[in-house]
Design a protein that fits this description.
Elements: H1 4-16, E1 32-39, E2 45-50, H2 60-65, E3 72-76, E4 81-91, E5 94-101, E6 116-124, E7 127-135, E8 141-152, E9 155-166, E10 174-181, E11 187-195, E12 203-208, E13 226-227, E14 231-239, H3 241-255, E15 275-289
Parallel strand pairs: 1-15
Antiparallel strand pairs: 1-2, 3-4, 3-6, 4-5, 6-7, 8-9, 9-12, 9-13, 10-11, 10-14, 14-15
């Protein structure tokens, strides 16, 4: 408490010599933002937008106008190449645009395979971009999932999800997870990635937080748990290191947002000249019902 008078004094001094200060922040050059994924057993999809200024006002019109149209997007597996066409998706009145294989030419498209190496090429705004990703083997083995009843505050109907995972002897395995509650969409965890630096070559058990919608406010005391009666599906994905690094740094930046003591975080994308990532996912699913 001895420093309170000092703080009060500083406030009084600065209020006595108040002066308007204007800071001219440089305008950042607009960049292409890529969100591209290719999952095992499915077709790839790529979302292209333009970056927005840090202090830009964001509303549905601005977001809609940020999508990049008429780009040329292809994916190659080394022997075959498919072209992705721009398609419109309406999610309850909100439109967004995604590049996927043309449904009228699906015979020439191919789905992701384990250990496949895939090159994404984009031509947009008179610029060319290229990135390579791998859909790895299922090195991290998702053995089983289960749950335990927990009490959160005064609520005794909450449950904690657990998973048992086996890691092979060789280092260098990475994973990302999502959860789906009932008919809701799959959502990533608040910290959605793991690696085998500590658990290499072991079978280990970890708690699995419920996935979150990061566009909404999150109750940090309750978000991680499921409810009695929920049907929960865990989507567990082996990923390569570049995909891991992107989501590791993005998760950290999101979780430290607003913390004045956190270090600045550089998001590690894997698309030279653009922001974002092109990532491959080797997917495993397990579903469990939390009894009432």
């Amino acid at each position: 408490m001895r420093n309170v008078p000092f703080i009060t004094l500083i406030v009084l001094i600065f209020s006595a010599c108040e002066k308007d200060i204007s800071v001219n922040l440089p305008q950042q050059q607009q960049q292409l933002v890529v969100e591209g994924k290719f999952e095992s057993g499915t077709y790839p999809q790529v979302i292209l937008t333009h970056s927005l200024n840090y202090f830009a006002k964001i509303d549905p019109v601005i977001l809609l106008n940020s999508f990049v149209h008429n780009a040329t997007v292809t994916v190659s597996d080394g022997s075959k190449t498919m072209t992705l066409t721009e398609q419109t998706i309406d999610t309850g009145g909100v439109q967004f645009f995604v590049y996927r294989p043309d449904p009228n030419q699906i015979a020439s498209a191919f789905k992701g395979k384990l250990s496949g190496i895939y090159t994404l090429r984009i031509n947009a705004d008179n610029k060319a971009y290229e990135s390579v990703t791998t859909i790895p083997l299922n090195s991290f083995k998702l053995d089983s999932v289960w749950w335990h009843r927990v009490q959160v505050k005064s609520d005794t109907n909450k449950a904690r999800l657990w998973a048992r995972i086996t890691d092979p002897p060789a280092f260098g395995n990475y994973a990302r997870y999502f959860t789906k509650r009932n008919s809701e969409p799959f959502l990533p965890g608040l910290n959605s990635v793991i690696n085998d630096e500590v658990v290499n070559g072991t079978t280990f058990e970890i708690p699995v937080d419920a996935g979150v919608n990061k566009n909404k406010s999150i109750d940090l005391e309750t978000y991680a748990f499921f409810n009695s009666g929920d049907t929960v599906t865990l989507k567990f994905c082996n990923i390569d290191k570049a995909t891991y690094d992107f989501w590791r740094t993005l998760d950290f930046a999101y979780n430290s947002n607003g913390n004045p003591f956190s270090s600045p975080t550089k998001i590690l994308g894997n698309i030279p000249g653009a922001l974002g990532y092109w990532g491959g996912y080797a997917v495993t699913y397990k579903t469990i019902i939390i009894s009432k």
